Input
Amino acid sequence: MMSFSGLSPADPQYVRDLGDGLRLRWSRAEDAEELARLECEVFLNRPTEPLNQPLAWHVRELLSDSHPLMGSGDFALVEDRRGGGNRVVACACLWRQFWDYEDVRLLVGRPELVISDPDYRHRGLIRALFGLLHARSEAEGALVQAITGIPYFYRQFGYEYALELDGYLTLPVALIPPAPDDGREPVRLRDATLEDLPAIMALYEARRQQGELAVSTPISEKWWRYQLTHWQDCRTGEHWHVQVMDSEREDFLGFLVMPTMRWRSAVPVMHCFEVVPGVDLFWLLPPVLRAILARGRQMPVRREPAEIDHLRFYLSTEHPIRAALLRLPNRYGEPLAVRSSRPYAWYVRVPDLAVFLRRVAPVLEHRLARSPLAGYSGKLSLHFYGRELLLHFQAGQLERVQELKPAFDYEQADAAFPPQAFLPLLFGYRSLDELSYAFPDIEVKPTAEMLLQTLFPKRPSWATPLG
Output
């Protein structure tokens, strides 16, 4: 196959010669087994671990053209053609989901399953893969790319930590309040069915609309339906096992999500744990904790089987269940010995900040309208040490976002930011004061400070990762 140098990197037929027998291209359905081999051999915590077979099954599912987030042509890969073979030595795939920036919906491209053979590292292969992923994502209209990746690494490719990613609470099972003497539980867990889908979706949406979230994840009926109909056949551990809470008098008290496998000695509850309004959480939680533990004992173990010693809840900082768990009394009437982890964060990349700001202009205008700066007219110049954006406001409307080339001296701008340091402000993850404290090279003129704080306030988010 020749190199199609005239094609866009987003094109399925794009091929690029990287030298030394290495070739960069997009996947095809027939690559499934070779991609599964690489992922299960290399994606390990330690080289001595057994092959990661659940991940191999997951790769095959992703390439089956039935998965909601991607298709068989969405792996970028590097293959070594020396010796007459086509051995894949590095790969990454592109998922799609949506975020709502307040009430503006954004397509988000998600690089995932990023891996390279240890013998081929430090050759720029991951950078080449990300070039393809970014090109396709941007060609599809995504203004944002995001990844839930390992520390530091993705900063090399234009990403910055800019949104909270669920921390977790760890609850020792020995301290779960005991069941009633008669053994009758007031609340139970059962597998969600398609009949529960309207109630699940309505409750999730109601929770998402609370709290003026800066960013949240809309979840389509297609995603929920896929999880409800596929989890029983899942061998990967990646599916959502959606479970409904009910009682003798109420068919639907809420729902929660668990994976289909547990890891070692922990039973996880992932991302969603939603309860209908008006339910006493201190009444509901003890029987639900006991039911989660019972479910965990039935789950297959993904790695290193061990006796269950704790439950782990991955919930956002603002989640009401998190607050209730921290105050729930144990069997001795004292607060549960719950350990709280520091939340991690999403890496976020915005390839064209001017385009992004134009897209979210309605949000910025709404924030202005509800502030002491309502009806603001004027300009805001943002310098990024090499380029500059000029935001033109007229009567509270963002009329134009202009990129200045070459950029003027940063001392003449209203505010100056290291390029990636602006993203935590843009997504409400950090306040202007917090960023200014952390980055000495952020400079803001007093006349611009109130405007920036109004346009980009610190806000909680609930960016649920799908997949």
User: Anything to note?
Assistant: The radius of gyration is 24 Å. The mean pLDDT is 93. Residues 281-298 form the longest helix (18 residues).
